[in-house]
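SEQUENCE, STRUCTURE TOKENS:
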Amino acid sequence: MAKKVRTPPPPRRVQAPQRRETRRAAGVPTRSPWIYAAAGAASAAVIAGIVVAVVVVHKNGGGGKTSTANVASYNKLPGIRRTKAPWPPEYQFLADRLLPLGLTTLPQEAVTTHYHSHLDIYVNGKHITVPQYVGINLGANYLTQLHTHDTRGVIHVESPKANDHFSLGQFVAEWGVFLNSRCIGAYCNGLKWYVNGKLQTGDPQRYVLQSHDEIAIVVGKPPAKIPSSYQFLQGE
């Protein structure tokens, strides 16, 4: 009789080698959201303290739409940076943030809801780049309902659900940047924000993205001109 072959135990997880750190430093995503499934029970108590961001919208005084989600919880999520720019996409804890932000992964781009908004950020008159691949994890081969493909500041809003809505706060927190009514990142010198050239009030996190919006966040000295529109590419 042949000797029974024992199934070897699974390999122990070890610290990733320096190569992985090098990839992370270069901005290449290395972690899939699915690896967190096994840790779900351990993190349930933490997530339970954060209200899942279902975006319910209502009209504000200026005619725009705002979210009633618990946006204050966004800045408590792992990976949110209260630092100076530049802010590359934060991938290390992206999978931890998706569920509390009310975002899910998509196997491919969706077209049932599909429109674009544009975001400009100015700090003391200097334009801050919104990077490419926010919400796109190349290493894990997924994207979310909110993402960027390039550095133009164009936010792609896509969902398999009809008339799905998402807020500016969801996008910025997915990016991994601190935002509230006073600060973006480490900059807190008189934050103002505009939609299509018009000064807004309230928390910019709550603003619900609309098709062909031009959103400008300005801290400190403003630029020579607040943009009131953006020239989207044909088909955007």
Remarks:
- The chain is about 15% helix and 20% strand.
